[in-house]
Every structure is written in C-alpha cells, then in structure tokens.
TrEMBL record:
Residues 1-27 are annotated as: Disordered. It holds the Pfam family Ank_4. The lineage of its organism: Eukaryota, Amoebozoa, Discosea, Flabellinia, Dactylopodida. It comes from Paramoeba aestuarina. It comes from the Eukaryota. This is Uncharacterized protein. ANK repeats lie at residues 111-143, 178-210. Gene3D superfamilies: Ankyrin repeat-containing domain. The keyword Repeat applies.
C-alpha cells in the first residue's frame, strides 16, 4: 500500500514538473514573440508585425517602459527617413493595423508620455501627421504636466509646432506647470526656431507665469 502511494506521489511530482516546464517554455516563447513584435515596429518591418500577430501575440503588449507599438514607432523611426517611399508605405500600413486592432495612440508610458509627446520631441512630422489623423490628442499632459505642444516648443521642433498649431490653434493657449506658456518653454530651451514660430502666430511675449516672469525673463535667466 505504501509503495503504491509513493508511486502516485512520484507520478504527481513528475506531472507537476512537466507542467512547470511547459509553462516556462510557453512564457519564453511569448516573451521572444513580444520582443520581435516591438522590434519590428521600431525597425519599420510590417512583415515582422504581421508574423507576430498571426502567431497570436497580444497587439497591445508593451515593453518595460510601458510603451506600446505606437510609442515604438514614434520613438525609433528616424524623422529623416519617414518621408522615403518605403517608410511612407509602412506608415500607411501600420496605422491601418492600429485601426484594425484598436491600438491606443493616447496611452502614456512610464513618464506619462504619449506617442505624440515622443514625436514632438524628435520633430517627426510624418508620424505626427498620421497620429493626429488617427485621433492623437494634443492636450494630454505627461507626469511633468507638459503637453506635446510644450515639448515641441522646448525642443525646437518648429515644423511640429506649425503642424499642431494648424491642427488646433487653441493649443497655443494651454499652460504648463507654474503657468508657463509655450513661449516660456521655447525660451527655456533656447529654441530660437520655436520662438519665431510662436511669435509669428501671436504668442504673447509679455505674459507672466505664476511667479511674474515673462518669456523674456526666462531668456535672460538662461543666458
């Protein structure tokens, strides 16, 4: 009787061990698939994205920085290459994929940055154009209370500023932390091109922040 019980226990342990190994192998495979999926978005490889999706990958998967494939596209696709023929086609196809799988283009990463924040920082106008058409919001703020327009102003992304202003002129009136305007951010970043774009569109150079500092004061402090 005792021998039978021991055999049953051994069989049970073996089954549990086999199950654990299978689970570990499955997790390893899923992780590799997730990495391939995210890497394909970074590299502009539609075939890699489709391959991962056909193998059952969760299209909403994120990396360790809580960035989905829209973030990967925004952060890694070089602005200089976004206008070439292949990448134009890729952008068209990947945004169709976003629509099909309901990818959230307004999701925040670990810093609260949306894909539009990341694009604004790099001045990637072709991707910004697609994001805006797809419903990306310009008034979402990150953990520092910057919206994408503020980011573009501070980073001297003048073409991105023009595009976002054209999409919604009211965005220029939004305030950041401490009552800073977009012009405050541009002056803080010593972003001359941004300053010119904002002034040409009616930004108020005499508007004070919560401490009474105008954009000119900020420029003097930075000098």
């Amino acid at each position: 009787e005792k021998e039978k019980e021991k055999e049953k226990e051994k069989e049970k342990e073996k089954e549990m061990g086999d199950s654990s190994k299978e689970e570990a192998a499955k997790k390893k495979k899923n992780y590799a698939l997730e990495q391939a999926y995210l890497h394909s978005a970074r590299q502009g490889r539609m075939d890699g994205l489709i391959s991962a999706l056909t193998q059952g990958i969760d299209p909403h998967v994120t990396d360790s920085k809580q960035r989905n494939i829209a973030h990967q596209l925004a952060f890694y696709l070089p602005a200089s290459s976004s206008n070439n023929k292949n990448n134009k086609m890729f952008l068209k196809e990947i945004f169709y994929l976003f629509e099909t799988h309901k990818i959230d283009v307004n999701a925040g990463d670990y810093q609260g940055d949306t894909p539009l924040h990341l694009c604004a920082r790099k001045g990637n106008v072709p991707v910004i154009t697609h994001l805006l058409k797809f419903g990306a919001k310009m008034d979402i703020t990150n953990h520092e209370q910057f919206n994408p327009f503020h980011v573009a102003a501070e980073c001297n992304s003048s073409d991105a500023l023009k595009l976002m202003y054209h999409s919604n002129p009211k965005i220029m009136a939004t305030e950041g932390p401490d009552g800073w305007s977009s012009l405050h951010f541009a002056c803080s970043g010593e972003a001359l091109l941004s300053v010119v774009v904002l002034l040409d569109r009616g930004a108020d150079a005499s508007r004070p922040d919560n401490d009474g500092n105008t954009p000119l004061h900020i420029s003097c402090i930075q000098a």
